[in-house]
Design a protein that fits this description.
The chain is α+β, with helices and mostly antiparallel strands and 620 residues long. It has 15 helices and 21 strands. A hairpin with a 2-residue loop joins strand 20 and strand 21. Helix 11 crosses helix 13. The chain is globular and about 85 Å long.
Length: 620
Amino acid sequence: MTPPPARRRRTGTDGAAPARNLPRRGTVRRAQAITTYGVGSLVAVDQESFIVSGLDGAAEHWSSDESPRIHERRLARLLGVQHFRLPPASEDTSRDGIRVRRFPLMHSCPKCNDLRRHRDFNPPAGRSVCGTCEADLVPSRFVIACEAGHLDDFPYWHWVHRAAGGGSTAAGQCGGTLKMRTSGRSSSLRSILVSCTCGVPEVSMEGSFRKSTLKDLGLRCRGTRPWLGTSVPAQVCGMTPRTLQRGSSAVWQPVLKSALSIPPWSDGRADPLTEHWEELRKLSSRAEVEMCLKFAFKGESPVPIDEVMTLLDAEREEDPSGEDAPMFDHRYRALRSKEYERLRAGNDEREHSRDEQFVCETPLGDTTALHPLGVTGPMLVKKLREVRALKAFTRLSDPDSTVEPHEVPLSDSPLRWLPAMEVRGEGVFLRLDEDRLGSWEKATAVAARVERIRTAHQRTLEQRAGDPSRVAPSPATARMVLLHTLAHVLINEWSLEAGYPSASLRERLYAADDMAGVLVYTATSDSAGSLGGLVAQGEPDRLNRTIRSAVRRAEWCSSDPLCIESEASGTGGTNLAACHACVMLPETSCEHNNILLDRALLVGTPEDPHLGFFSGILAR
């Protein structure tokens, strides 16, 4: 993000400041623009607060002129766009950046205690200070949001005048000025006091976070979307909003989707066809495709016709169209299934060009040493490319907890692109023996532990969603929790033995009725990327020692016996034997936000040591 060009100051009807770039002191890394500070999120810069604008392409929104394109056909097809773009950069050579708008609009002055809209303080141009006191203005700590994604200022006027029937009266009709002060007696909401010069009694903010508070005031969501600007009308909503702190993680959660580049798309040769691909897919015969390519490229196609037909056949097989086309969740699982098949089959570097972005080979060593562990099919992923795209965002809910209607789009109009990051790295892929895994899953004790996790997770999803009918079923199964916990202990082990920071390693789980694999990889945009060190850990002898060491290390936790005997842990009881002293990882490394973990499924419990899948290792 870069300093803005010179612009004349203007004010909108709602007092919003003109869209602007974050100044240099508030620069945001490109990766943060899709994970932390994406469209619709709140950004604190010094003592000011802003909301990141949408992707509509107008002057007050993101500019994509300087953003390089990223091609990943499988993910683009899944998300309904043509391509992806990197977020604007903040280097000195960049002329533009990510645009923001001032939000919340309500500010207070710590000197005169006035509480009003930012423009009503008459601040000097380019500064956020009180025009009378010249003290730095403080953005409102409180905002309101609904599950549909709308965001608005906290209704202070209604809160103060609620005893006088303010819920049914238009704000500001009393003619008074709102005041806010702190009593200094504590740091609780009770010490934050709001009053009005019209003479109503002073009230505290205590109770403002109750779910029914705004409903009791007779207030409904107005459908405001400040990230889209003042020119975009509010949507008819009517849901009951909730009060949140401005910096709460519930205000904004990204919906990220990712895909590995795998053959036949991973060599990049199909990228020139992106603009014409939808038209090509509608054609059925080779002659029609060849004629379309000649017309589109005014001569010879940049991709041989045989390769184009192969690409079309591969796409139709993975993503059929028509009335019986699968839903988004099924298509995303199909995308993962194709990755799993390719990781199992491999892709030898010697058989492909140097432009190949996916190289997966069988290790040279003898893999029979892994059989007693119940591990099979290790693969060395020497090159991989992952594209992570910001699909949408949510408020007040987990991105995985609800279906499509609660996902807020990044624009008010249809998009041809989405912001994304392209990362490269290496990894190790391994599978669990299906026969041994199937027998272990049928054990009564295993099913009982997993059912406790699944029930707690399902209950948490329903509570967050508000509408139980819209909640997707919990993905917690015995093999999923086992693979998830195994990935965590491997990452912890490699961070100790191979010198990788755990935050630079990531997991990718393949857990379904026909899949039982895990990929640990170093796809990252920083210096801890692809140096060959992780691939070396996948050689059978070394992998055998790593798994044994990781499992033995997981047998004991510094929080035991509390950890291993825990009836529930984590958010809403969605973990069992798992804590930050044993298997939890940095949030960036985990696909499921450090939930659905239980190391007892690896090593067993003191009462039932044979419960663990790897209990045979510990018995020797």
